[in-house]
Write a structure and sequence with these properties.
Layout (H helix, E strand, L loop, with lengths): L10 E7 L12 E9 L9 E3 L10 E5 L11 E6 L7 E10 L15 E6 L2 E6 L9 E9 L5 E10 L3 H7 L4
């Protein structure tokens, strides 16, 4: 391991919000998903996923707020990733957003007021309102990779997918 003065990305927060569906219509349900990858399979199937009703085995990736309707003030979903505490077995983390499709096919273009932000402390690393992937049902938004000095690099990665939630988790790490 080489020594470096660069700290890299250490702890980030991903926030997601969207407007509730119109009165009398089924609720919109968007979910933040994080997928971790090992050096053996950096773009294959994830070692594990963190999404609604789950957290990483070691507690370094936690979904702290989860909404199924988009109602309320502020962010509807919040995920914290403590990359600096993540085991050295993991070399890549991809974060995305998926729209639940229980009530028929919905895309980001169908859901008003949706936006996602990735923050490190008070610094905004990236933000998106999903307009660039309006026809998609899921999207990756950020990628973190461990570099040779064992610190984490950030790369914004807004890529749209036309996939249901399960398919998305299987495809989101493809490069």
């Amino acid at each position: 391991m080489s020594s470096s003065l660069n700290r890299g990305v250490e702890k980030v927060e991903v926030t997601l919000k969207w407007d509730p569906s119109p009165l009398g219509r089924p609720p919109h349900d968007l979910d933040i998903v994080a997928a971790t990858y090992t050096a053996d399979t950096p773009s294959d199937r994830p070692a594990y996923l963190v999404h609604f009703d789950s957290r990483s085995p070691d507690g370094t990736i936690i979904l702290e707020r989860e909404s199924r309707t988009g109602q309320g003030f502020g962010s509807d979903e919040v995920m914290t990733l403590e990359l600096d505490r993540l085991s050295s077995d993991y070399v890549r983390v991809v974060v995305g957003v998926v729209i639940q499709q229980r009530e028929g096919r919905r895309t980001f273009g169908d859901i008003s007021g949706s936006s996602v932000r990735v923050l490190e402390g008070l610094a905004e690393l990236t933000t998106s309102d999903f307009t660039e992937v309006a026809a998609a049902t899921a999207a990756t938004i950020a990628e973190f990779s461990r570099n040779e000095s064992e610190t984490w690099d950030f790369r914004p990665s807004v890529r749209g997918f036309d996939a249901d939630p399960q398919e998305f988790t299987e495809q989101m790490g493809a490069v």
